[in-house]
Amino acid sequence: MSRISVGQVEYLNCIPVYHALEEGLLDADIELIKGPPTKLNKMFLNGELDITPISSIEYARYKDKCIIIPNMSISADGNVESILLFSHCPPTELEGKTVNVTTSSATSVVLLRILFEHYYHVQLAFRRAEPDLNTMLASADAALLIGDDAMLAHQAVMLNNPGIIVTDLGREWKNFTREKMVYAVWVVHSELAENNPDLVEQISQLFNQAKATGLASRADLIKKGHKRSGLPHDLLNHYFDTIHHDLGESERRALLTFYDYAYKSGIIEDRVKLKIWGE
Questions:
Q1: Per the domain annotation, does 278 fall within a domain?
Q2: Would you say residue 275 lies in a domain?
Q3: H or E element: which one contains 71?
Q4: How far apart are CA 239 and CA 253, in angstroms?
Q5: Are residues 51 and 102 in the same domain?
Q6: pLDDT (tens digit, 9 = 90+) per residue, 129-151?
Q7: How far apart, in Å, are the Cα atoms of 221 and each of 26, 45, 128, 181, 233?
Q8: Same structural domain for residues 62 and 142?
Q9: What local confidence, expressed as pLDDT, does residue 2 receive?
């Protein structure tokens, strides 16, 4: 396989996919480039990455520039445990208030907007902020965190500030739509697929193999997750049961449902069809 540049989200939810690649368990000449979702989204769109997990909403915005790798996503059926709204009152009581949203995410911010508009029917102001819960709540009525930041903040809240209300956006989306939620998909450039289909097929097989290898190594995933985050082993074991990486019929339906609401809210200009490699 030719050397390829690969985006790697630096969150626990990607460990099952990247474990085998990080540890050299598979034969692949790749360069792993780490960062938060927003950074990797930008790098991919600028042509600096061959493949990356891209925020679901960014796929919708740039669907003509990329093709989805089959059977690969970051998704959950209900609770996601790592996309959390922290507030001093229930979400339905935030009318006219301000929420600080993390600069690390694209999809989660859109999901929050959709839930407030279509599910809670509450109007509020959104403001970008660096992902630090105490600082965020000092200048706003609520705060949105994702990934490891959200999980670590949740642990701290349970220990030190149980009065803060923690709302899992995955659970709220499930309550609202009865669907799963797909937070990211893996993509390659459309131009790469057109000019080098053999390489894209190799990439597709590599990532699906990496996912299978990682999912078969639960003890190693938990050990690596604990080393990176300090989170308890039992919580990590539960989290790796919560996060899924498939893109089957139910995930595709869920993704299109998300895009329909994004379209209704004026967040994207067109309705979306999924372009998946090999189909």
A1: no
A2: no
A3: strand 66-76
A4: 23
A5: no
A6: 999 999 999 999 999 999 999 99
A7: 16, 30, 32, 23, 10
A8: no
A9: 59
CA distance 39 to 272: 23
The region that residue 112 occupies, defined by phi over 0 for left and psi between -120 and 50 for alpha, beta otherwise, is: alpha
Quick check: 164 and 121 in contact, CB under 8 A?
no
**65 shares its domain with 192:** yes
Task: Specify the pLDDT at position 249.
Answer: 97
Query: What residues make up the domain containing 127?
Result: 83-177
Phi, psi of 98, deg, nearest 5:
-115, 140
* 216, two tokens: 């078969």
Could you tell me if 96 and 160 lie in one domain?
yes
**Residues 200 and 256 both lie in one domain:** yes
How far apart are the C-alpha atoms of 68 and 225, rounded to whole Å? 27
CB atoms within 10 A of CB 53: 29
Q: pTM of the entire structure?
A: 0.94
Q: What is the domain count for the chain?
A: 2
Could you read off the pLDDT of 222-254 as tens digits, one per residue? 999 999 999 999 999 999 999 999 999 999 999
CATH number at residue 50: 3.40.190.10
- Look at strands 83-87 and 165-168 and give their pairing: antiparallel
Among 177, 211, 236, the domain-final residue is 177
d(CA 54, CA 174): 22
CA–CA dist 31, 51 (Å, integer): 11
**Residue 105 contacts residue 129 (beta carbons within 8 Å):** no
Q: 60: closest CA among 273, 235, 254?
A: 273
Taking Cα atoms as reference points, which of 129, 77, 139 lies closest to residue 105?
A: 129
Give the largest Cα separation in the chain, rounded: 56
DSSP state, residue 117: I
